[in-house]
Amino acid sequence: MSKETKSKIFTILFSACIASPLGYFFQWKYHQYENELNLLQEKRQQSLDFLMDVSSMMDQRIYQMDKAYKSLKYNRSPEDIEAAWNSYRDILEKWNGSLNKNLVLSEHYFNKKFSDDFGNIHRDFVLLGKSLDAAKRAGHTAGQVKDLTPLFAALNKKMSAFLENGLSQIQKTN
């Protein structure tokens, strides 16, 4: 057998026995890496979508509460007060209808502490809502309504911190 034939046989054997499996292995590893990267990107996007949905719902809820609050504070007409309260009830129904789902997803996409923070925000909404309801039932005197301003401010601050925390956690998964 000539040297050239031996070289061709060696090249064929090397390609078939070592290079092909080695190439396959590296392709498989790269595909695995690419798949993990895609899954991570997908989870990041789902986390961001969830956070934006929850943030939007919180904004809608506090906005409707504020409209109801101002309808009392500024002694609007009974029709304006009723319209503001109906809008508030609508968002409240939407909020309560997805509360458990949102608590579970907040822990799924983020962590237990994040879910607990969301639960605390919910409790603050409940407290503010009870205060607002009490002011309405009491005949909405200016003194009773005025006391709610610090509650709105504190809740807004918590909502902002919650959103910042969520965005920070999403960025860390980079």
Itemize the secondary structure elements and their pairings.
Elements: H1 3-73, H2 78-97, H3 99-109, H4 112-137, H5 142-146, H6 149-172
Helix pairs in contact: 1-2, 1-3, 1-4, 1-6, 3-4, 4-6
Q: What does it look like?
A:
By secondary structure, the chain is an all-alpha fold. It has one domain (47-172): Four Helix Bundle (Hemerythrin (Met), subunit A) (Up-down Bundle), CATH 1.20.120.230. Helices cover 90% and strands 0% of the residues. The chain has six helices and no strands. The protein has helices at 3-73, 78-97, 99-109, 112-137, 142-146, 149-172. The model has no long low-confidence stretch (mean pLDDT 87).
Assign an overall shape: rod-shaped
Mean pLDDT: 87
CATH class: Mainly Alpha
Q: Any idea what the radius of gyration is?
A: 29 Å
How many domains comprise the coordinates?
A: 1
State the CATH topology: Four Helix Bundle (Hemerythrin (Met), subunit A)
Structural class: mainly alpha
How many β-strand stretches?
0
Largest sheet: none
**Second rung of CATH, namely the architecture:** Up-down Bundle
Name the CATH superfamily assignment. Alpha-catenin/vinculin-like
Number of helices: 6
β-strand amount: under 5%
Can you tell me the residue ranges where pLDDT is under 50 for at least 5 consecutive residues? none
What share of the residues lie within helices?
over 70%
String of helices and strands:
HHHHHH
* Beginning-to-end CA distance, first to last residue: 58 Å
